[in-house]
Amino acid sequence: MASDSSPINTRDGQSSPDGWPTSPISNTVSSPGDRPRRKRGRQSSYATPSPMPADSRVRTPQATPTPSSNARRRARARRSSATPTSTDDVPPSSDVGEGNEDDAPVVYVWGTNISVQDVNAAILRFLRHFREDPQQIEGKYMRMINHVIEMEGDSLDVDAHDVYDYDSDLYTKMVRYPLEVLAIFDMVLMDMVGRINPLFEKHIQARIFNLKSSISMRNLNPSDVEKMISLKGMIIRCSSVIPEIREAVFRCLVCGYYSDPVVVERGRINEPTVCAKQECLSRNSMTLVHNRCRFADKQVVRVQETPDDIPDGGTPHTVTLLMHDKLVDAGKPGDRVEVTGIYRAMSVRVGQTQRTVKSIFKTYIDCLHLKTTDKSRMDVQDPMETENEASTGDDDSTQKSEISVEQLKELSKQPDIYERLTRSLAPNIWELDDVKRGLLCQLFGGNALKLPSGASFRGDINILLVGDPGTSKSQLLQYIHKLSPRGIYTSGRGSSAVGLTAYVAKDPETGETVLESGALVLSDKGICCIDEFDKMSDNARSMLHEVMEQQTVSIAKAGIIASLNARTSVLACANPIGSRYNPRLSVIENIHLPPTLMSRFDLIYLILDKADEETDRRLAKHIVALHFENPNSSQLDVIDLPTLTAYINYARKHIHPQLSDEATEELTRGYVEMRRRGNFPGSSKKVITATPRQIESLIRLSEGLARIRFSEVVNKSDVIEAFRLLEVAMQQSATDHSTGTIDMDLITTGVSASERMRRENLVSATRSLIMDKLTIGGSSARVMELLEELKKQNLGGGAEVHLSDLRTALSTLSAEGFLAVHGDSVKRI
Amino acid sequence: MVGLPYDCLANPLGAVRSTFDKAMSSDSSTAALDGKDWGASEVFRQFLFDDGGLSQVPLLNSSTMKWVQPNTLVRFRGMIQDMLGNEFYVGAYKDGDKWITNKFADASHDPSNASSDMRIWERQLLYCTPVPGQNSWVECTPDAMRNPYISAISPLREKRQREDEAIKSDVDMVEPGYAIEDSPNLKKMRENGVAFEPFNLQKVVTEGSASNSSTPHVERDSVSCLVKIYDSPESDLKLNEVFEFVGIFTFDPDLTIPIDDKEVMDDFCEDELLCLPPSKVPRLHCVVHRKLGASDLVSSPHLELTTPVIKEIREALIGHLTAILGHDRLAAEYILLHLLSRVHARVDEVAVGKLSLNLTCFNKENMSVLGNNLKLVIGSLMPFTECLPLTVDYLNSVTLTPKKDYITNRLVSGLLQLAEGSHLTIDETPLQSGTLNSGGLENAQVLRSMMESQKVHYDFTYYKMEMPADVQFLILSEGKSNILPADLVLPFHPSSVDSASGVDGEMLKAWRWYLATMKSLPHSIDPPLQKAVEDDLVAARQEDRSLSREDFSRWLTMGRLMSVSFGATSLSMEHWQMVKELERLRKIRFQGNL
Fold first, then answer.
1. Do A359 and B109 touch (CB under 8 A)?
2. What pTM value is reported for the model?
3. Where are the domains of chain A?
4. CA A825 to chain centroid
5. CA A86 to CA B444: how far, in whole Å?
6. Taking CB atoms and an 8 Å cutoff, what residues of chain B touch A359?
7. What ipTM score was computed for the predicted complex, to two decimals?
8. Nearest to A446 by CA among A696, A701, A668
9. Distance CA B86, CA B168 (A)
10. What are the boundaries of the region Disordered (chain A) (predicted)?
């Protein structure tokens, strides 16, 4: 027995043979042990709590170089079968605190009025009787213990909340004196296990987790030393697994006698100087036998504060964790974890050989439990996602952890969530509510679909904003860029679409420098915001064709064609030609974009500057206020940016709405309706008001709308709203100004049906005019003269005939071989 | 107060102890002193500020480091480059019946004879470096700071001791990882040292200084310091802020002994301080610290703050800038506004008050003269200036953002870790076409985002952390820079290229003071004028629809800076008109350029 208590005594430098006095008491408290072997083990570890605080709490540092009390306890348990020998070379000296215990019937935790027996009983009660649900016959932990025994596990996870609920006093004691209480806890556990299955050899440790309150790393202070704490952080470094010696066995070189296992004391092993065998007793003959020593795994892990805990202008704090046994490799760098452990401080010795210590302490956490905050939940099955997540920085997942899913769900239940989100989107930009709604749909996106046949339908919504300068298009773009999961913001002038690198280009004439970056690939699974879309080079634009429908980018380099994923939504904005939008011309004419590309945008918004003095004034006021007042412009009832981001990310990852039957019906009905609008009764004119592309757009939009509500089902109302959004956009961009109807030809070909009709009329009028005026091979006529003539005739349905129109007509005729145009003169062939 | 029983300057620890004893005698519980000051800092404050002791405190730099005594009071000016977290130490322990404090000291103690009673306190560790880009004139005149100990009773002996230490550290530097105690070299030197000390030492010292001077300019004065802060709320001290620390300089040879015991966590290089040997990085136990604003760094020229004086200085400065800029007065006006700009508010993502300037139309010829002159002038006016030649190779190779090195657990400084109010000149003229790799791309993006939002994203490997910055950007380029779009683009039209005339020191001082003082002036706008400005903006927009909120924002910033440049604290119509006139002239230049 003396040997059993020795590790405890010698550890603290002030030895006290407390193994003796406490043993009878332990017998009275715990159930009478019928197996002497066990009993001894129990007694010794039972005695631990009392001497421990003497050194650890008050003179902590130098006394606790071996931090894991768990491990020590285990070591003792194993050792219990060994026969007591003279390895204990510590002279017994009586400690004041312990001396009293000889005759005291109650054992107190040193320096407190916590009775060991009370705690013991409380733990026993808790383990036996705690039930989550009163109906359960067997206690929660009894079940778990049985389970652990079955699984031959070595630890029992104990929810601190359960402890608190059952016995708040025990919880308080546990948190304040973890070393002592946990030692008792393990004791009780061992005792119980021993009773359930006497043959169960393993030692079971209690792992406490889920404390009532967790502390921020920043607020750890000296008063927390030796307390049980829990904190959140991110693992930044893990050491390799260190085998730590726990028990050493020595062999005498002279006689071959194996010593008893020597337990680590204060971080070192005392090598016996004399062979213990009575017959031998040779000096300095003992050598370490490696393969009979016992080692335990140890790992040093550094944990850093999570970004959201860091105050302005601070750098993250770090703390060191010590992990043992099963906890080794429980987390890897980059994981967000919640750690429960005992905060400890250890003094630093000046030198290995010196006893002098610095006045500084190293602090670390002796880890009891490590929980990786559910990261997988946020991950998509897509390997690409996780890969990129690391490189682009975890900003969004960072914020997500703070804003709980419950909160988001709560938010989604609000009836006016759609309106609220619209309001919260770029609150600094007024009006443009329908544009914002469209952008919102883009942010949430539709469902991407991949058919088994290999055909895939994109879920990304592409939006084009066309409008006058100074209508805060760029601001909207910037805002979306900030909000979107993986946005790239680029200017059309500097986009090379492909390539992961960028190119610095210099205009040879003006010396202007431009950065060309490969935006599209970089924004895979995000939103690619392209400003000044109209100024994009043709080359880059042609790339967009592929991106916007097939969602891939092909790069041909060195004979290899690589197809890269570019599953991106495109949000582009363009300025009209001649800087101001000309309402007389169509969208296509206003911005110089090929119609093929235009048709790939789901929504095209025209943002026109209405030269409204009121808006100007509001802008002026706002900016003046920004500069001169202490701007705390409080926007009421607006969802803040992090929440919004979290909301969108959550929806994008977890909500995959399906069309309901009702919605499908509405979709078909609406589409037919739209198509029908193009047929004017009694007119041969066929206007296409909707194309199959629109159906796809509508589906995407309504899916996006359902996502906004966190709904797994697309409702009829979503479809109706999608129709409305589409129509609003189309009304602005695809309206034929001469007839006032929606004409998809405008977008798909750039020419409206009525325009085409008008052109045909003009061509025939010109033809007949030339037929009249000119003879084959005869004199030539000037274009201006023809224009005058035509104007006089007033052809083309009353509309003014423009020189450009005439020129188009003439070129059509010359292509027919009807006439030849040389500069300004027209000649009939 | 009549004569203190201790010398705050030479024996600050004595002051600490005596105040501690006094506090203990009045209230004998040490627990009450946990995390509190017992009046020691009050004593020092009184000594430093009320009794004018501050000027007697030597400023720590590479030259003074040679003779400053350990455990004396020193000053250190620097930027907080990294925060190393908190450190727990034995704040007070009982020796026999008497409590002894360890505050402001690094003492070690023997656990065997220490009684069981002690208090653990904490202190904050800051790693401070000289402010990046600090111009030489900012340093206090070092001559006034000659060694006060030279006239002490046994000056030679003391000095030698220090030199001895200096050599020690030199040797330490030469042979890193070599334990001083075990270094045979040193042992030999010591043995011989008794006899040949004077010669031997002299030689080593000169050698040492020679090698020192060969190191680049920046290195010469760069003394970094590990500052230990006591009893100060964390929010007081922020990364990248410039502070003056007054504290007790310690040099404890005990701590230089490399700890080679493979104890629990040393394979981890757990102790960050190991990477900062005290021989290279002195420790400073800070007693008093104060934040240095722009005006604290320049010496006041003893001028009265009256409008005519300010106007006069402004006129002279504009004249000087005009001369430097080849008689381009418009550019001079803009430069002045630019130099006065600072971020005074942040709303959402917008940093209000910044005014980055892009001077275009530089070419190789005038760059070498005018550009360099401009850089020199800015260097002589602003306390912290940095230049960055932008080339593709440079962008590809350099790391601009600070990065956390998890192996040493330190923040590795990048070029863009700049103190508040720094000035950064980016010379884009050498930039040629070329391909940027991913690092270069990142650098370009970092520069751009820093310019646009005055924020730098520090790289913490697993995430980026946004750090607010306040840096003035001046870009010199051939054509408009689209890589770094500045708030203001001004075609530069020098009429002559002549090297500027010299300026006398008094004038420079006045200008520095002017810039620093005006920059920090508060500013407001009166409601009637606010209305007028709003009307102006609305009218301008009715006329020219292409005006965006950026333009408005710029005008208002300029309006503010313009009136500030005249020492006014509120915007007046006159200044507003001046801004409009400047913008009109600028616009004309653009038209002329096309």
1. yes
2. 0.66
3. 2-208, 217-249+293-372, 753-828
4. 68
5. 72
6. 89-90, 102, 105-109
7. 0.72
8. A701
9. 29
10. 1-101, 376-401
